[in-house]
Design brief:
disordered C terminus, 81% helix
Length: 428
């Protein structure tokens, strides 16, 4: 066992310097992601007892993200990418500070905190995606995302349980708000540490300075449809676990425990898949992830009780990393192909990709709000996720079309270097 562990460490150390630095940066920042994704939503739910406010908060975040992608593209012409990446991480702490300072959770205050978090996510994901694309290739992307997901899932065991029971412990003495303030301070300190690690890298900005285009290769439009389907779930599922657990279980401690169920198993699965699978296996991984997500949504909709929530969270914990492990390498491979064909910088496609995600997120969150205001909040929480999960199954068909047209996942697909040197040989 020890020899196997040493072998894995040697394999990681054999990766390029920037590969290791980006992985370590994301590892440090991963310590705060469960707080941002789950407990901020729980804070809104605890203090407003209104699921619609949670979704509105999420919508303001998702509105800020594409706007920041545009701003980031302009700033990349003048500012080093490490500074923008670091700013994104630190802004997440600033957003939490704004939220904790609100005396009443009105829509204006929630909107300001949400837009600030959207700025954070925009700077973080725009630069993270570009750097991940720049420092990996199609051969080691499964390993990169498998490694990241392994650490993310391990952290998802420790952080939610610790924070959840800390909030519940402080809440027992009437100091729940104080607990959230302490957590916010810790989050900000961790984002500073992640920024320091980031500056150890030698990351460079994109070469080409034009990022906005309105016409693209047909293969890219297929990927945008896949992005829209992915966004459907993101528009609701980031906050759905918190709302369901706070409604049906009622306490942050239970929230933390539910988030941690099955996470260790998921982490091991993700690392093994990342190390052993090939590009040709991604569609299978994608299909399994979507199927598990749909199964969890249906069980939650049918049961709609404590057992249903736990089963949903368990299956979602396994499904989400599976989807990421397959989706991001597919996205990057398509970017490499169309960027070489159209002779554009990769960041132009990362920017445009965000528009596809935003459309899906808006539809996903809008589906919840329509059901909540038109029928009831319970119906929205019970059935919106089922509708979205079933719609997402279409992603399997879309991904297969991408394979057929772009041969993105076929074992004999040319490398990125071959594509750039022989664009005419790529058959779309």
């Amino acid at each position: 066992m020890l020899n196997k562990l040493k072998q894995e460490v040697r394999h990681f150390n054999a990766q390029p310097h920037n590969f290791r630095i980006l992985t370590l940066t994301n590892l440090v920042y991963a310590l705060v992601l469960p707080v941002i994704d789950i407990f901020v939503a729980a804070y809104v739910m605890r203090n407003s007892n209104d699921p619609t406010k949670v979704v509105i908060y999420q919508l303001t975040i998702y509105t800020g993200i594409p706007l920041t992608f545009l701003l980031n593209g302009w700033l990349l012409k003048h500012v080093n990418i490490r500074k923008l990446y670091s700013a994104g991480m630190m802004l997440s702490g600033v957003s939490m500070i704004i939220m904790m300072s609100l005396k009443t959770l009105d829509l204006v205050g929630i909107g300001i905190a949400g837009i600030t978090m959207g700025l954070s996510f925009g700077f973080y994901w725009a630069n993270r995606d570009y750097l991940a694309l720049a420092i990996t290739n199609d051969g080691n992307r499964n390993y990169y995302y498998g490694l990241e997901t392994f650490f993310y899932t391990i952290i998802a065991v420790i952080v939610p349980v610790g924070i959840g029971w800390f909030i519940e412990w402080k809440g027992g003495s009437g100091q729940a708000h104080t607990a959230y303030v302490i957590i916010t301070a810790i989050v900000f300190a961790i984002t500073v540490c992640a920024s320091i690690v980031c500056f150890r890298g030698t990351f460079t900005n994109p070469g080409q300075k034009k990022y906005i285009f309105f016409k693209f290769h047909p293969l890219w439009y297929r990927l945008l449809s896949l992005a829209m389907l992915k966004g459907l779930a993101q528009g609701f599922l980031v906050t759905a676990p918190a709302m369901l657990i706070m409604l049906l279980l009622g306490k942050e401690g239970a929230l933390g425990s539910a988030q941690s169920v099955g996470a260790i198993i998921a982490a091991v699965i993700m690392y093994i898949l990342g190390r052993l699978t090939k590009p040709s296996d991604r569609i299978k991984i994608f299909a399994v992830g979507l199927s598990l997500f749909a199964l969890g949504a249906i069980l939650n909709g049918v049961l709609f009780n404590q057992a249903g929530v736990v089963l949903f969270i368990l299956l979602l914990l396994i499904a989400k990393p599976l989807l990421d492990l397959a989706y991001f390498p597919i996205q990057f491979r398509v970017i490499e192909i169309v960027a070489a064909i159209e002779k554009r910088t990769e960041y132009a496609y990362i920017l445009n990709h965000e528009a596809g995600l935003y459309v899906g997120r808006f539809i996903g969150a809008g589906t919840f709000l329509l059901l909540a205001y038109g029928i009831s909040t319970e119906i929205a929480l019970r059935y919106a996720v089922v509708i979205i999960a079933l719609l997402q199954l279409c992603s399997i068909w879309v991904a297969k079309k991408i394979i057929a047209k772009g041969k993105v996942l076929s074992p004999d697909a040319p490398s990125s270097e071959e594509i750039k040197g022989k664009v005419s040989e790529v058959m779309i």
